[in-house]
Amino acid sequence: MKITIIGTGYVGLPSGVGFAELGQEVYCVDNNAQKIAMLQKGEVTLFEDGLADMLERNLASGKLHFTTDLPFAVKQADIVILAVGTPPHPVTKEADLQYIEAAVKDLAPHLSGYTVVATKSTVPVGTGDKLEKIMRDINPSADFDVISLPEFLREGFALHDFFYPERIIVGTDSERARKLIQQLYLPFKNSRLVFVNRKSSETIKYASNAFLAIKLNYINEIANFCEKSGADIEEVALGIGLDSRIGSKFLKAGPGYGGSCFPKDTVAMSYMARQWGLKMPLVDTAIAENDQRQIDMAQRVLALCPVANAKIAVLGLAFKNGTDDCRTSPAVKIVSELLQHNTDITAYDPQAMQTAQTLLGDKIKYADSAEQAIAGSDIVAVLTEWPEFADINWEKAGQTMKHKIIVDCRNLLPMAEIERLGFEYHGIGRGKK
Questions:
Q1: pTM over the 0.85 mark
Q2: Which CATH architecture has domain 293-426?
Q3: CATH architecture of 2-196
Q4: What is the per-residue pLDDT for 432?
């Protein structure tokens, strides 16, 4: 089977490499010639564990191709997967469809034989209908079906999630498309393949992310309660998560959610509801409280600074560990808030230094290691849960600090051990009895 994937970002690139690893012939298309040139040479353009080796292996096997030639790639394809960005519109905050619409306008004239066009980008309900009309208007004789194939890849775990998906959702009423997708996903025998109508499929991704955003907002509210009551959020979350009706995932208190999905999908869900005259108070509250959460975390750090114009060591800039993605990263938002208060910030992230610098520029200093960032600081703020931060020799690092104060916004460090070393430790929801 030949697959063409349009877009080589955090969804398109891992998906393309993954399908090639399974033996499919894959053409990855992007209009960024510099990015394609790098990928053709085996140079990854984003960080994802295991991606570099798998990309190199499949380039060498001849199963994986990178090109800017969209007409050629589309003509080869049995399935065209749309994996371009749908960022929030700068004014309305609805999902901006200009890139995906441009992609289908470009591909429509070049469809050859029966082709399934799958939208893997997260798109508003009804987008499949709109894209299908655009393509049929451009190429009335083309033989194709538009399906919804939402992605559920977690950044930092994209390859794992590709090969071991919890579920594969397919939105289509076409029997021909259904048979082709069943053939594509034959290797995934342990994953549930669920066929629904296209609008249901488009809704599922938004509904899932909105629910998880609400769950994260809830556990942060409980963390605030724990700080006042003397309870420990780590213990409380453990007890809550053991309830099979709730589950343990997304019960980790922290500085709020970020990344490429939750912020834009919750806002888009709220926008869609308003278009239909509906209110979604739970989703709206999660959005507002998440924005406020990051301001509150910055204020927490500022309140604990022992001197004016404090030197702050920031550990972590990516929105979570395992990725270099800083889009709507809570860490970046917290740093931006701290900069409004005459602070001197030196930051370190194992993977996201370059991407963070495109957002923060020269407003902060960038260290070559966590230890270098910590040296000479008045206070350390842990903003991303990279496991290696817990492995720092904190006894030695503390000797280089002016004041031994840590604000652990991820509850990553071992509190008892850190306090034993003489640090003033402040976690999230770790009430003092």
A1: yes
A2: 3-Layer(aba) Sandwich (3.40)
A3: 3-Layer(aba) Sandwich (3.40)
A4: 61
